Here is the input.
Amino acid sequence: MTQSITIPTPDDWHLHLRDGAMLEGVIADSARHFARAIIMPNLVPPVVRGDQAASYRDRILKALPVGMTFEPLMTLYLTETTDPDDVEAATKSGLVKALKLYPAGATTNSDSGVTDFVKVQPVLERMAEIGLPLCVHGEVTTADVDIFDREAVFIETVLDPLRKRVPGLRVVMEHVTTKDGVDYVRANEKDLAATLTTHHLIINRNHILVGGIKPHYYCLPVAKRELHRLALREAATSGDARFFLGTDSAPHPTDLKENACGCAGCYTSINTMSLLAHVFEEEDKLDNLEKFSSQNGPAFYGLPVNETTMTLVKGDAPVTFPSEVKTGAGPVTVFDPGFDVFWKVEEN
Ligand code: NCD
Ligand code: ZN
Here is the structure.
């Protein structure tokens, strides 16, 4: 029996597109299935000012294949020298939709991130005033905190105090990977939401480490214990408006992942929607897929839900995805869920 589901075209509320040849190689995979995406600013050098975001946006649109539509929602990388007036101007012009907080050293290209939160207090206050959300990479980076505890410790020692110091600041906890993160969002009615990635709904830390190390399952924040994966699945499929999709699709050339010091990031733009349909069906929550991938995100960001639609069809034969995407910056390995998937996005 063929089963199908039609939802408003999804958006991706956390995406790495990179620049240059990599951008050209991956943009179509996002534009095919997503109308809009929040574009991460962790380029080298990072996108810190409004003028840099404007020219990055132009490069993204230029890289978009003819005939495809896609709206990049730009972000600025918060540094200790970010100018509140520049942020306000870039927001009021409609260009910038969020600022991104990376604790210094937390992940790929995060060296310019924040160490001293006192220095960013004025810009955070301005953001609260103008309603601009702060997207947060929620991990502490101090060497004495175990990598599997970094999210939970961040919530307690950095995020909660920060939210108390800046009342009214709207925060997105990005790529939440723990039950602690889910519980924290649930305990706060106002000004707080979280994105969840597709891969964190599928893998736990055993997938990375048991039976040989699997570099293509290594991303940051690193996948945690099974109990956390189950909490993430419950949150994503619950329909709760505070949780929405941010794939965190993060392309790296395969040789830089299959490496003695492999980079963090999973590439999922190309198969995310099929995988999500699979997960939501497993949880018996297919009806909530549109909330997670198409409705909750725009509601938080104060944007309209897309008027176009996407249809996913479940067939009898497994869908095949390429194992690698070729780009001018080298091949990128596609996230392999490790099971057959039968849901396919119907091409228009
Ligand atoms: C991201 C990247 O490669 O830019 N990597 C990742 O593992 N998610 C950075 C990030 O979002 O942490
Ligand atoms: Zn990311």
